[in-house]
Amino acid sequence: MEIKETAVAGTLESSDIQIMISKATDGIQIDLQSDVEKQFGDQIRQVITKTLNDLDITAAKVKAVDKGALDCVIKARTIAAAQRASQTTDQPAWEVL
Amino acid sequence: MKNSVNRDLPEDVMKDLNYQPFESTEIGHPEIQRVAPKVHVSTGDDKVVTSIKQVIKDTLKDGMTISFHHHFRNGDFVFNMVMREIIDAGYKDLTLAPSSLTGVMNDLVIEAIKAGTITHITSSGMRGSLGDFVSHGGLKSPVIFRSHGNRARAIEHGDIKIDVAFLGVPNADALGNANGMEGDAVFGSLGYALMDAQYADKVVLLTDNIVSYPNTPASIKQTQVDYVVKVDKVGDPDKIGSGATRFTKDPKELKIASTVNDVIVNSPYFKDGFSFQTGSGGAALAVTRYLRQAMIDNKIKASFALGGITKPTTDLLKEGLVDKVMDVQDFDKGAAESMHTSANQQEIDASWYADPDNKGAMVDQLDVVILSALEIDTKFNVNVMSGSDGVIRGAIGGHQDAATAKLTIISAPLVRGRIATVVPDVTTVVTPGDSVDVLVTEYGIAINPKRKDLQEALGNLPGVPVYKIEDLQKLAEQKVGKPKPLEFTDRTVAMIEYRDGSIIDTIKEVKD
């Protein structure tokens, strides 16, 4: 999957995460803001990275603002943002779900 | 050195401060000696002054202990007024010993610490920027956290020796007779301040409302007061009871509240003449509403409601469902006003309320209490002091004291956002699991295995699943994942006393 434009998914409500994905040339860089950074920062980065890798995205700039989202929410928002960014929303990546 | 709730205590600090590790919730029957204040004799004819600066100059010396009450909560003007003068006068090495610290005081406390004016603090709690400052090592010597009952005990023992108490009141006469019920900034019960008035060497009242002599009812008496300072305004009435009373619409809180009610109603304590205490959180207020209906349906009345009082509780008094309200502080305007008009709403001081070293305190007679928790662990130990990031952001309040009730219920959601409330080990032990009986979450309840009688009584309630607390903990972990352990340095920034004055846990400086 190729990132074509910058796209956002998610809100800043409690228990949600807002993910913004944009083009990058090299690797996945994640800029994370989270109230639970100390306890779950590594885990959140790992879920985002794995979800993107499963979508065959190896280069992307990710800005994530987390409000205490669970892993399933982080995954869902990442997929939505990635599909919007790659303009593939009419072809859901079922195998990643 | 480990105590009986398995907390490692720093030997050097324990020795320096002459502390014993916590052993047991049992107080026993020791004989103790109380202290008495120094009295500067006068006929009281010239107590009224207008200059705070002059009073401070006449009463305060470097190294002394000063106190305040927190009944004005976030509407307090008195603390900042007095502290400003003390900092500006260049005092050093003072101990700050208020009944608690509210957010509105944070900036000046931090300024006073930085200036060397305050070097020691004892309090029920602290929040916001001050908690953050202390957790990051801002104060050299550890803060001592005490429950409301324990503060009373410590004052009576002389562990806290108050040299000068600065007490704001909404009214006073020229001799110092005062109460919390009349004037612009009324807050109702003066419960915590009554200890300071009785035991401080110098008692300074600050009021914006000097009334004709003699002022009654006199909660603080002229026999205790050295100065009456006339000031412009003691507090902001709109912020004294802000935000406390609200009826929750949150379905999770309502589910917890109705389950708490099920637990109470089906316990052996729900009978005519029972007594109870609730807090001021959303779920606790909703419990009062459910309990009211259950009392009407079962034709049961309570003999007394205790502690921090809210309007829903005084409404029960007016309805005749509760005989007496024993009131150490009022959380909202409704409760404060009710105290003025209802003879059955009795003001009680912190010692009468909850001091363990007593000839009987009210909490010793308490049947049912509903308390909250930031965290509770599989040993039923409760944390109400440090947040999920390890930073100080709470207060003991009456938690340890009221938990000695016959039925202690902790009401808390299983998880808050991504943070589990039910955990393998709490970050900070404040109330020992020995005094906790039932945990109520939105998923179901867990009963302390020590309470076989409650297992029996509550084991088969329709719609109330009973879990082992270990299983609730696993359920929480399944939802949110396993958090990375918090990191702390070796430096102790706070000591948590149990209500008997032993050390139940410490708080370390956070690493970040």
Automatic annotation (TrEMBL), chain A:
The keyword Cytoplasm applies. Keywords: Cytoplasm, Lyase, Phosphoprotein. It is found in: Cytoplasm. Pfam families: ACP. Its main location: cytoplasm. The modification O-(phosphoribosyl dephospho-coenzyme A)serine is found at residue 14. GO terms for molecular function: lyase activity. InterPro entries: CitD, Mal_deCO2ase/Cit_lyase_ACP. One of its GO terms (cellular component) is cytoplasm. Belongs to the CitD family. Oligomer with a subunit composition of (alpha,beta,gamma)6. Covalent carrier of the coenzyme of citrate lyase. This is Citrate lyase acyl carrier protein. It comes from Secundilactobacillus silagincola.
Automatic annotation (TrEMBL), chain B:
Its EC number is 2.8.3.10, 4.1.3.6. It holds the Pfam family CitF. Keywords: Cytoplasm, Lyase, Transferase. GO terms for biological process: acetyl-CoA metabolic process. One of its GO terms (molecular function) is citrate CoA-transferase activity. It comes from the Bacteria. It catalyses: citrate = oxaloacetate + acetate; citrate + acetyl-CoA = (3S)-citryl-CoA + acetate. The keyword Lyase applies. InterPro entries: Citrate_lyase_asu, NagB/RpiA_transferase-like. GO terms for cellular component: ATP-independent citrate lyase complex; cytoplasm. It is found in: Cytoplasm. This is Citrate lyase alpha chain. It comes from Secundilactobacillus silagincola.
